[in-house]
Design a protein that fits this description.
The complex is a heterodimer.
Chain A: H1 3-21, H2 25-46, H3 51-79, H4 91-111, H5 123-140, H6 144-162, H7 171-199
Chain B: H1 2-18, H2 22-25, H3 28-45, H4 60-86, H5 93-111, H6 115-133, H7 139-172, H8 181-187, H9 193-211, H10 219-226, H11 229-256, H12 260-282, H13 288-309, H14 313-342, H15 353-356, H16 358-371, H17 378-392, H18 396-422, H19 438-456, H20 460-472
The chains are: A mainly alpha, B mainly alpha.
Membrane topology (chain A): Multi-pass membrane protein
InterPro entries (chain A): HyfE-like
Subcellular location (chain A): Cell membrane
Chain lengths: ~210, ~475
Amino acid sequence: MNSLADQLLVLCLLINFAVLGTSRLAFSVRSVAVQGVLLGVLPALVHPFSWHLAFIVVSIVLVKGALIPTLIIRAIKKAEIEREFSPFIGYIPSLVLGALFTSLAFIFAAKLPLAPEHEGLLVVPAAAATLMCGFLVLMGRRKAISQVLGYLLMENGIFLFGLLLADAMPVMVEAGALLDLLVGIFVMGIVINHISREFSSIDTSRLSALREE
Amino acid sequence: MMWALVLLPLFGAALTWLVPDNRRRAWVLPVVSLAHLAITATLIAEAPAASPGGWILLDALGKLVLAGNSILFTVCSLYAVGYLAYRLKRPNRVLCASLLVCLSATSLVAISHHLGLLWIALEATTLTMAPLIYFNHNARSIEATWKYLLICSVGIAIALLGLFFLAYSTIVAKQEVTLLLPTLIGNAAALHPGWRHAAFIFLLVGFGSKMGLAPLHTWKPDAYGEAPGLVGALLAGGLVNCALLALLRVYQIAVASTEGALFQQVLLVMGLVSMAFAAVFMARQSDFKRMLAYSSVEHVGIITVALGLGKGALFAGLLHMINNSLTKGVLFLSCGNIHRAYNSKSTQFVRGAIRRTPWSGALFMAAFLAITGSPPFAPFVSEFLIVSSAFGQGNHVTGALFLLFLALIFIGMASTVLPVVLGEVPKDLERTRYRDAFPTVFPPLILMGIVLVLGVWIPEPLRVLLHDAAALLGGEA
């Protein structure tokens, strides 16, 4: 792994904090998209060239960098909201927790029984930290769109771990997983649209009619 | 031939998209699913060899799930024609297409022998179900869809991480890096124990949330309660089996490794916890569709307990998987009819269904008796075998708890079902357009017939299939 790849990983970690600390939804969407593009480029830096690799890089950049953000931005426009108001976990606590999770991820990764060729890499701690930050956004926000963003962050974290396995994953599996993700976001976008029409808000804390007494 | 199982329904989905008329479109469903059933039958009679590369293979476990799903889907698609005739005003293009894509994805789950492919197919089933749950387009159904989509997506993402861990354990152990099932089973004992252990936990959580094992079942009552009866039947009888098959694949690897006993212990506890949850929440349910969701949690728990017990209980557990899926079909379809007839699913208004809808009421009653384990229906046989296997292994605590939960659940479910079926029809209740008629009564009647026959006689081919499948899981062949 070269130093450029490490710098990109550090950038990924910083993007986690950008998402944790902002209330502006469009900014969050773009941050997550940039993270997705960085992840798409990473395999190209780590592994030698092959057509398999080129296909994966292009499709990830296309899906995570262009298609998914377009879908979400469109949902934001239709729902006519710009900001996340009064999240369950505030922005400052989110940032503190995010920092805590990130440091824990580094301590944890140092203790993992990694393969010798992967020891001392930033990939594993970055994956764990991104996963945890994704969870934090998923749990801590009210708006349906923020929850989708949390899910995407989580997915990015899982994907980062998958970098270690790039040789093991057949191209069909990667493409299939990516397609599932895209369709998933597409369906979520439609559902968000219907939520905003039905409740005139996409605040998921209003989705409480089915609560068990 | 194998690919026809996946491609035919996709072709059918494209066809439903092109048919402009709501009434005629529904007829595509039974045509495609009957063809699917015919292909399934020929493939089960004579399974072709593995595809080059070994990704696609129909083994005994896959055959069981495939057969169960194909039968259930055929019955549901026959029912759909009658059901959609009552709801012609609501556009059904998305419903019909999603149903067929779902059939395609469930078939792919059954035949894939590569865990990555299996994961993709399972995720696809999750996504195709979302528009189906949202069919009624109201505030309650959108809430249910959102919860379902989010919880299941996150769950299945965790399962993907588990798969990555499993693949990574092959790297650390310097084995051939692959997610092909036979290779993984062959190398299971040599995989790196730490990563393998983590993989099992993540996969259990991921697939467990899709199956609805307690405490990961929170989406289930909402989704089952708000989806149309026909979709509920497919969720509880079809998708549950797909997720279960994914878990069984993990089980195969676990049993082949050194961690089999621990994995079984965890399954046993999770199964009993699910039954306990169901027993608590089943009582005093005022919504009879939500009650069925807890019944689903219970039966997923029962199957998991059987897996946890291992050995002789595996045969019973697999039999219960089939029995549960067929009986759930009857329950959801008949309860969908009752829902139509009263335009409500609250036990406050729905009473005396046996008078208003004699056939559906009687079917609901019979299926209730069957699912709670009353003889002579099929679930009695499988539940009895599981209990006797628990006591036979000397696991008295499990056996006793199992019986206790079954009794509590019987009482809880009876207190809801009996008034719904046998109570007095409220006087000032309007009649709806729905009457019991052949198209909506005959399909669940077929399923009920199968449940009854399986209770007294298990055909020889099925017995052989169940034994082969149990042998794959390390049971007594």
